[in-house]
Amino acid sequence: MFLFAQQENLTKTAQEVAQSGWLGLGVADWCVLAVYFVVILVVGLWSMTKVSDISDFFMGGRRFGKVFMMFFAFGSGTSSEQAISVVAGTWRAGLAGIWWQFLWLWATPFYWLVAPVMRRMRALTTADFFEHRFNTPTATLYTIYGIIMAIVFIAAGLFSSGKMVDALTGGELEVLAQQLDVQVPTAEYSEDDSFVGMTTRPLKGYEYAILAMTTLFVIYGMAGGLGAAIITDFIQGILTIIFSFLLLPFVFNMVGGFGALQAGSQIKSGMLNLAADPAVAESLGKEPITYFYVCMLAITAMAGIVVQPHIMGVCGAGKTEFEGRFGFTVGNFLKRICTIAWTFTGLACILWYLGDNSPLQQTDPDLYRDVQVRNNPEEYNSLPPAEQERIDKADKDFSDSLFGRAAFEILPTISPGLIGLLLASLLAAVMSTSDAQMVIGSGLFTENIYKKFIAKNRSDKHYLWVGRIAGLLIVMLALILQTSFEDVIHALQVIIKTPAAIGISFWFGIAWRRWNALAVWASTFAAVGTWWFVSNMGGSLSSILPESMFKNDGKSMYDVYQMLFYMGVGTSVGIAVSLLTPRMPQEKLDKFFRLIHTPITPGEYVAEPCTLPANPAPQEHTLFKHPDIELPRLTLTDISGFLLAWAAVATLIGVTVWLSNHA
Question: Can you give the pTM of this predicted structure?
Answer without folding.
Answer: 0.81
